[in-house]
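Page 37, top half.
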Amino acid sequence: MSSFEKLEVWQLAMNLIADVYKKTSELPKEELYGLTGQIRRAAVSIAANIAEGNGRNNRKEYIQFLGVASGSQAELATLLMATMRIYPNLDLIAELEDAHRIGMMLTRLKQALRTIPANRPPTTATRPPTTETRPPSPETRPPA
């Protein structure tokens, strides 16, 4: 299992893809190359950018791809809202709520990646830095 597959936000985004595909199949066939296609592409883009960013070489690139995923999330939310206005009988509330939840999770993940120092070993992250200087031990003192 890749590390991105362990991320709750990626798992939720993958579930959202499946839900969106099911719901958009209820749209009229004339929407196949319109709203249906746009909604599906936006949903896929969220999970794909989370995974691609996670596989990149450094944290800056990862955060950049999470930003792209956030943009796709906002696009998906907008498309779902527009679809519900055009087709009020199509219930997309659960998908819209999931999209918003993913957006909040992406924001928190980006914030966490920005605040955790890069290249810092995990063992020192919990230990406060010491500023005091200790006198040398008798074994390390130079002879008088």
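Page 37, bottom half:
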Amino acid sequence: IWLARQLEVEEVGVIAYASFFVFLSSSLVDMGFAAALIQKDSISREHIESVFFVNLAIGITLFAAILIWADSLGLLLNEPMLSGVLQPLSAKFLFGAVAAVPMALLKRNMMFKEMAIINTLSLCVGTLVGVFIVMKGGGVWGLIAQQLLLGVMQAIGYMYVNGSSFNISFKYAALKELLQFSVHSFSIRMIGAANQQGTNFIIGYLMGTATLGVFSVANRIHQTLNLLLHEVVSQVLFPVFSSIQDDRKRISSALFTINKGTGYLLFPIYLFLVISGQDMVITLVGDRWSESGRVLSILAIGGLSTTIVYTTSTLIVSIGRPDVINYLNSLGTIGKLCVFSLFSYAGLATASIAWIVFLAVMFPIRMYYFKKVYDYEIGKYIHPFLKPLTLTFVSGMVTFLMLETFSFTEGLNRFLFSLLVFFAIYSILIVMLSKDDLSNGYKLVLNSKK
């Protein structure tokens, strides 16, 4: 956020544009073999060293390819600044290739505490160095340095904590044993890469880096909130569903309580962003990013529907049908890329609205597959969301009317006023009308932890 305040919109856009190629190529480095090392019951030294060899070979190849073709790619896309960013960032392929196997072994050995320390330390050091470079007038090189330092420190940290060296050797038979699972893991990863970064390429190519800079700030805030909020909820959902997956009566009861709790937690956050997203962005990163705030408010509308269907995805995976979710996610990714391509001529805000309309179209499709796979009544599933959704909209409507009545100027004062009013009204409504629902949700969390 601080770096966005210091950099030009075009500089942020160029980094986001380059991130598409870096993220996509980084997904190619591993090819899913690291995940196969984690999943396989028993692995030998031959498995480990063969995967390390393949990752390193792919990483070196991609690094060399970007160095050679970056200038041509910049000319092809009519973005001369792109090559100057891509070439130094291509070193991340080497760091990623070195880090993939040690990181997989740490995960396999449940050394998550050590990984958290490495990641946190690397992020802090990278951010501090990036901020220092920007303060000294380095501009976009601050973001480049942040990314490179993050990658190299993670690679060194994983290698050091893992405590073992890797010989450069290759056994095809060992690699073949990992191939089946790695292909499945790789396909999931590529779908995720296309979903997360594909839009950046389309916007950058069709609308320019300035527009991409506007979108990337809004999308980064939106994606970060999605990750944090859904990850917190999934920590409760997955163990609950896993422990009672063969008991439909208990799942039905759990769904009712979980859906209510999810609605009470997530609906107000997303609706608040719809109302005050622009004020929040102006407060955090400055007036020149106000258009990012408008885009954030539009994207937040999609969070309301995502909150409802999110539980279905978790349940379908917990009963052993991840193939259905992969199919739906692939369909959603293709649709997202097509929507932004087709509506790019109309501007970023219009394309974002079209994306929200597409999510509305996908909603009944996802619910149809949920009913088909689990045979659960859709009306029964949606019913628990109605009360928290109603309370959220009442709070939002009152807040909106008060904002219009007092006519605040966009920015800090309007943001703080809307924050206070919205969540004060929402809290009062919950205490008056939904105290028992929250108590039941809290008990469910405690039971799931036990």
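Margin note: The chain has a mean pLDDT of 81.
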